Amino acid sequence: MAHSIHGAFKPNRTDNLCTPRILVECLEDYLRRWCYRNGIKQPYEVLIWCPFDKETSEYVLFFKSLGYSVIATHIDDGQDFFTYEPAQYDIIISNPPFSRKLDVFKRCNALGKPWVMLSNLMCINYMEIGNYFADNPVEMIIPDKRVSFDGNPSSFCSGYFCKGFAEPSLSFVHLPHCNSGKDFVPSRMIEAYKG
What is the CA radius of gyration of the chain? Predict the structure, then answer.
């Protein structure tokens, strides 16, 4: 998930954490309500851009299973989020590279479409993130569990930062488990990074 505004970008180890399905499924009701508020009657009428995703991404697979139209793009396929934009889409949803989160939030706002980005919630402790959100308010969806990306207990909480998507503007959502131990189900996109 390495993206760059200014040439080559070397990702760090947190940039390729593939989102498990449990963190995608919690968006279902929010997406349905967003469609309702925007007068969208059928899922196929919505075109979701997943800019940090391959076809095996849990975002892509889950949204397609619900009937939504999805565009999956990824830097590995020559589609750098910071320089590429599809001709048409309605909303942006993904898990961006953690080391570029502020750049991603800025780019999402500049594109002017509703957006939903997963991030480590500790990022709100960073002064530059707090300063940016003070001038560019966001909505938040916060799972009530620390979800694992690799089967081991997670040391951090993840949540969604959103613009033009979540009502109320701060929501906690219940998850059935933490996706670790006996409940662990890896993201199917992880296969793309093996080898």
Answer: 16
Which of 11-20, 34-43, 48-57 is the least confident region?
11-20
Asked if residues 33 and 18 have their Cβ atoms less than 8 Å apart, the reply is: no
Strands (E), 66-178: 69-72, 91-94, 115-120, 139-143, 158-163, 170-173
pLDDT in tens, 68-124: 999 999 999 999 999 999 999 999 999 998 889 999 999 999 999 999 999 999 888
Strands 170-173 and 69-72, sheet pairing? unpaired
Angle between helices 127-135 and 101-111 in degrees, nearest 10: 10
Please give the pLDDT value at position 172: 67
Q: Among 162, 41, 170, 28, which residue's Cα sits nearest to residue 92?
A: 162
Position 95: which residue type?
Answer: N
Residue 136: partners with Cβ closer than 8 Å, 6 or more residues away: 105, 109
Question: Is the peptide bond preceding residue 168 cis, with omega within 30 degrees of 0?
Answer: yes
* Contact assessment for residue 93 and residue 70, using Cβ atoms and an 8 Å cutoff: no
91-94, strands of its sheet edge to edge: 69-72, 47-50, 91-94, 115-120, 158-163, 139-143, 170-173
Indicate if the pLDDT at residue 146 is higher than 90: no
Mean pLDDT of the chain: 88
